[in-house]
Write a structure and sequence with these properties.
This protein is an all-alpha fold. It is built from 7 helices and no strands. The longest helix has 28 residues.
């Protein structure tokens, strides 16, 4: 990317976050549609091999990006690093569950190992390379959009009974925790 394009995206991080959100929403819809078609065709409650490969590969890139950005983050203290690490670890667990629901044995056999290796690979690339701060901001924004979509689809109840007050209380407590740092 040219410097002016990266600069544009650095100043329009919400646009880049929207792109990340849209990309992961499209991937999720592709996986859901594939499972539905397989069920209708008596192929079982799993995605097609093509959908599994695309979905798992995209999450491998997602995890590699997280690993890369772990090296280049701007956390000011060990408390922030611990909070961030716990949040990302829990996010990985939730993503693991969602991918297992879609892809079943293909995910258990290959996908989970690929995703674990991708984080380490991303971290290694981050250790060996450095890019401009504007590009880092752009990558963080794209990743943020993906994280927001994955949180909304996996971590907020869809069909189960949910309460807005519980969500609101959690959001307020987390905000107070962040303000304290």
């Amino acid at each position: 990317m040219g410097a002016s394009l990266v600069g544009f995206f650095e100043h329009h991080v919400y646009l880049v976050a929207l792109v990340g959100f849209a990309v992961f929403y499209g991937l999720e819809r592709f996986a859901i549609t594939s499972r539905q078609q397989n069920r209708q065709n008596k192929g079982g409650d799993v995605t097609s091999p093509r959908a599994a490969i695309l979905h798992i590969a995209s999450f491998a890139l997602y995890n590699a990006l997280i690993g890369y950005l772990l090296v280049h983050q701007q956390l000011s203290g060990s408390g922030e690093l611990i909070l961030f690490s716990v949040a990302i670890a829990l996010h990985f667990v939730v993503n693991d569950y969602g991918l297992r629901v879609h892809h079943k044995t293909a995910y258990d056999r290959i996908g989970r190992w690929l995703l674990a290796a991708a984080v380490i690979l991303g971290w290694g690339v981050g250790q060996l390379t450095s890019i401009h701060d504007a590009a880092i901001a752009t990558l963080f924004a794209f990743l943020s959009g993906g994280i927001i979509l994955n949180v909304l689809k996996e971590e907020l109840p869809e069909e189960r009974e949910s309460r807005f007050w519980a969500f609101g209380l959690g959001a307020i407590l987390y905000t107070l925790l962040l303000i304290d740092y």
